[in-house]
Queue: 3 jobs
Job 1
Amino acid sequence: MNAWEILDAVSERKRRGKSYYEFFRDSSLSLGIYGLSAGEGDPQQPHTEDEVYYIVRGSGRMRIGDQDRAVTPGSVVFVGAGAEHRFHSIEEDLEVLVVFAPSEGSRA
């Protein structure tokens, strides 16, 4: 069985000192934790795979193309492959569960 505790993945991301930590990969999808500090810019570029973001903790805003919305714990956002997107106006440190389908980089 593949099962995880999100807070364990958050801790491992921080321990590694990385903004993104992938903790599961299969051909059909990959899972990771993405963290951004309050006030930090989001350097993301469009991805070649679809993505789902689930906000675990923190708050800010997300822009996808010309659409913009607030995100808080419990928010779920879908981003289609190739779409320009980024988090911004981060008020509280963000921890985000990221689901790529298929797995990140598999269509690159």
Job 2
Amino acid sequence: MGTSDLNNLTGCCLISTPALQDEPFEKSVIYICSHGKHGAMGFVVNKKIKEFSFSDLALQLPINFSRMTASLDLYRGGPLDKVRGFVLHSTDYVNSDSITPGGGVAISASIDILTDIAYGNGPKDNLIALGYANWAPNQLEQEIINNMWLVVPASPELVFHTKDEEKWNCALDNLGVDITRFCTTFGRA
């Protein structure tokens, strides 16, 4: 991918490379919901939160979730604003606050979608992310040039239907990349 291809990554997924070994991004897959001249924003889609559940979250919301029909997982969407929730979901459900960046994924942030999901009236596929990742203008492009990220087209299959522990390897396989042969150093001749 050349630098001219880096102008708009909205609706794509990033795959961290071995050059990026710090949490929360080590072996992460990130869905990019917005990318342009003002920077980029995305959500980690392969790291579940183990110490906090949807039931814990529901207790903090002004909705009665006592008749919930679904068991829901929460994901570490990124290191910023970790108490703010976003729902990545299939495009069969779109409400007034939904955006559809691409790759067969929509995003909503209203409490209405959580209610609909909890009662079995929401989108067919969903992923609830707490927090997000953000890049300043040109920061993401530079990180890609510096071998920190690979870019793969997003798909509902990757985001919603692949096991979390397999998403990173699956995304690499889709690119045809053998990560054991990946060079983590760079320089100028």
Job 3
Amino acid sequence: MSALKERVKWRTRRGLLELDIYFTRFNQTQLDGLSDSELETLLDLLETDDIELWNWVGGREECPVEEWKGLVAAIRRS
């Protein structure tokens, strides 16, 4: 596994159990299919606070960053 994927896997470990569950599924089903560019974008997304990220993944709020919307949708579908 590439160093970039390892960084993403490490950053997807969250303090909020619900997010942890989503990201565990996402990592198992989607991570290997992402390009390096998508992985870099995901790393940017993962800088977001857990509560805000949970609101986006849980569908309570729309993600305001256009380049993150596809990843948020993919995480939600996992």
